[in-house]
């Protein structure tokens, strides 16, 4: 299986969703009170269960599944996963909890936004209400002197959480700090509509204040030089917003705004061909995230793009 120890009591799992490696990570915090961070989507739950078995953790020992937000690639598999973890509850933002309990609206909405990518992830199953723990702050005891602290980091979504683990001092960022393309050592924005720039920047300030030792991206993997990466991501979001606002003011269409973002953002220039050649990333990064930043500019200016 695709497990990798990346720190004390910390194991990264490549879920290989839809056969794509280095697309979605779950993480296992091992120890006397093991915790799963990110269930991942429904279609890769069997791979996560294999990973739990591979590292020698008994499913009944797991008490918490901490998800950053309810989007399919992060929490869509929570309902299916809990069927195999008899003692586990799901930690989720209160605004996201109703959609895990009853995902009937989440699924068609995800299909509309993600198109064929939603089928790669799979349809979510309900999470029993009595197994949901809504939280925006506090911590989870990991045992062995460790804890997992909860930080509200909205912007990417209105129900987004990040988690700071005490064993190594790193942060599970969900989508609050972008997508890390490890093969290229580049971060690109993860900002589907509706995206809110100011809260996203404030959330990054919260993560910077933690002075984390590393970032654990759901997409994908561990990255060092954490504080500089978070600051660089703030500047990248501001650049995208500037280009989008100027494009909307000038009456440019989505393709024109996309082209200018790729030209002016060195990270996007570096990975343009890589992203275009990836069936999932071309939909999420080049389409959904451009729509997200243009939607932000349209709301701010009160003017639709062409």
Detailed description of the structure:
The chain is α/β, with parallel strands linked by helices and 306 residues long. The chain folds into 2 domains: 3-226, Ribonuclease Z/Hydroxyacylglutathione hydrolase-like (Metallo-beta-lactamase, Chain A, 4-Layer Sandwich), CATH 3.60.15.10; 235-301, no CATH class. Helix content is 39%, strand content 20%. The protein has a 7-stranded mixed sheet. A 6-stranded mixed sheet has the order 8-9-10-11-14-15. A hairpin with a 5-residue loop joins strand 3 (25-29) and strand 4 (35-37). Helix 7 packs antiparallel against helix 8, helix 8 (226-250) packs antiparallel against helix 9 and helix 9 packs across helix 10 (266-276).
Summarize the structure.
This protein has 306 residues and is α/β, with parallel strands linked by helices.
What name does CATH use for the topology of the largest domain?
Metallo-beta-lactamase, Chain A
Number of helices: 11
Please give the CATH architecture of the largest domain.
Answer: 4-Layer Sandwich
Helix content class: 25-40%
Uncertain stretches: none
Largest sheet: 7 strands, mixed
Mean pLDDT: 96
The CATH homologous superfamily of the largest domain is called Ribonuclease Z/Hydroxyacylglutathione hydrolase-like
Strand order of the largest sheet: 1-2-3-4-5-6-7
Q: H/E series, N to C?
A: EEEEHEHHEHHHEEEEEEEHEEHHHH
Name some characteristics of this structure.
about 300 residues, 7-stranded mixed β-sheet, 15 strands, 6-stranded mixed β-sheet, alpha/beta
Itemize the secondary structure elements and their pairings.
Blueprint (H helix, E strand, L loop, with lengths): L2 E5 L2 E5 L10 E5 L5 E3 L7 H10 L9 E3 L5 H4 L2 H5 L6 E4 L4 H5 L4 H9 L1 H6 L10 E3 L4 E5 L2 E7 L8 E5 L5 E4 L4 E3 L4 E3 L8 H13 L5 E3 L3 E3 L2 H25 L3 H11 L1 H11 L4 H21 L5
Parallel strand pairs: 4-5, 5-6, 6-7, 11-14
Antiparallel strand pairs: 1-2, 2-3, 3-4, 8-9, 9-10, 10-11, 12-13, 14-15
